Amino acid sequence: MPATPALTRILERPGLVAGLLAAASAALLSGAFAFQYIGGLAPCVLCIWQRWPYAVVIGLGVIGAGLARGAAPPKGALAAVLGLAALALFVDAGIAGFHVGVEQKWWEGTQACVGTGPSGAKTAQQMVAELLNTKVVRCDEVAWSLAGISMAGYNMIAALGLGVFATLGALRTAGRGGKTEVIHG
Fold first, then answer.
1. Interacting residues of 169 by C-beta distance below 8 A, sequence separation 6+
2. Residue 22 contacts by C-beta under 8 Å, 6 or more apart in sequence?
3. Sign (positive/negative) of CA torsion 145, 116, 34, 18?
4. CA 127 to CA 123: how far, in whole Å?
5. DSSP-assigned letters across all residues of 51-75
6. Domain ranges of the chain
7. φ, ψ at 149 (rounded to 5°)
């Protein structure tokens, strides 16, 4: 399916693609922090893992935008930066998809999703006190949803969409997308 004219114009400007990826990742990460600090929804371990790829994409987006501002931006480097951003976003979508599966009870989460036991040589009373004072945010409980889709589900959709956008940008920048020159070998 051919890209729309507006998308085509954006994809022809790798610096803009990189900047948009950084801005969208920053917005999504800010949203996660807003849910945590303003909305009072403590993140589980999988929620936190889903934040790291966005931080990586922000950094890559800034690097890509900076490279594109140069007099002769290195096409290969820009394509690599966008490709790495796509990879990070697809990893994020994978983590989010795993999280959705845990929420839906399709499979079990990690040990960190349900908490770890007490460590070290302690008395039974010390272990009970430690367990009672440890608040574990479970990954298999949906903290918030809209229209039956959890935050992990929305994150998976966003990360997949941004990953496709980054992939299209990388391919276009490398000269392999749309009507631009195809690089052989």
1. 11, 14, 17, 18, 21, 82, 86
2. 57, 58, 60, 61, 62, 64, 65
3. negative
4. 6
5. HHHHHHHHHHHHHHHHHHTSSS--H
6. 5-108+139-173
7. -110, 130
**C-beta separation of 135 from 106 below 8 A:** no
Which tokens hold the place of 149? 């889709």
Of residues 15 and 18, the one with the higher pLDDT is 18
Residues 6+ apart with CB under 8 A from 179: none
Helix (H/G/I), strand (E/B), else coil: 43? coil
Q: Structure tokens of 146? A: 């809209």
Model pLDDT for residues 24-35, shown as the tens digit of each residue: 999 999 999 998
Full-model pTM: 0.78
